[in-house]
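User: Predict the complex with uridine 5'-triphosphate.
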Amino acid sequence: MITKCLFPVAGYGTRFLPATKSMPKEMLPVVNKPLVQYGVEEALEAGLKDIGFVTGRGKRAIADHFDVSYELEHQIAGSDKEKYLESIREVMSKGSFSFTRQRDMRGLGDAILNGYRLIGDEAFGVVLSDDLCVAEEGVLSQMVKLYKQFRCSIVAVQEVPEDQISKFGVIGGEQIKDGIYQVNEMVEKPNPEDAPSNLAIIGRYILTPDIFEILRDTPPGKNNEVQLTDALMTQAQNGCVLAYKFKGRRFDCGSVEGFVTATNYVYENLYNP
Ligand code: UTP
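Assistant: Here is the predicted structure with uridine 5'-triphosphate placed in the model:
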């Protein structure tokens, strides 16, 4: 049983400056809900109720979002405005929320390693909340089912066009079932000519706990950051890592263009005032 899910939220969000100068990227609202809440709702739907955040300086708003606001509650108690708090109240009643800090932003791999204190020696989910996923069955739920079957690390992948490939970690592997690949190659942000496939890793993972030991020994890679992709490659060489072509749609809300597309999509299809 997987019950824990890690949210690395320590990044600077430079692509959204100046909005992210004093506000966490993860709190940017897609319509009326902050990005990170979509991710947490997806984790809860998958049964991952112990939510751990790896935060950094200037990210206190995330902790406040998942805590009670007595003043606000008092102010609107009994009024017709209470309905606006329903979704976050539900999230808070279902999950438990823990926090640790990444002191130096040394990359996603380092952020995950910092999360060891919250996870310990068990398999766990990872959500990068700037990837907003919309699916009939949540992407993490799909992956948890797969984990029960295969018991190894799983990365969610999607096909991307050649001119986009250098923005992603890319896998190479052997298809063992429809949409499921045994990974034997992984490259972080490759030039299109060096990419092993058009299957790009997006921000959803299930990781087995040996990843922590591997991350401790993984030197900084591309951009001088500890790359989760490098650690996953070692894990694939030692044992098994699967890539899963998830069912659903992903929006890259870390970029302005993806964020606007997601906002329009959510407003037209999911927003229920
Ligand atoms: P990104 O590559 O999107 O970086 O990180 P970023 O800082 O958030 O955004 P830009 O590129 O400057 O605009 C992917 C995920 O990894 C987390 C981020 O918070 C994001 O969820 N991360 C990245 C960390 O937690 N720590 C790091 O040192 C780096």
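The radius of gyration is 18 Å.
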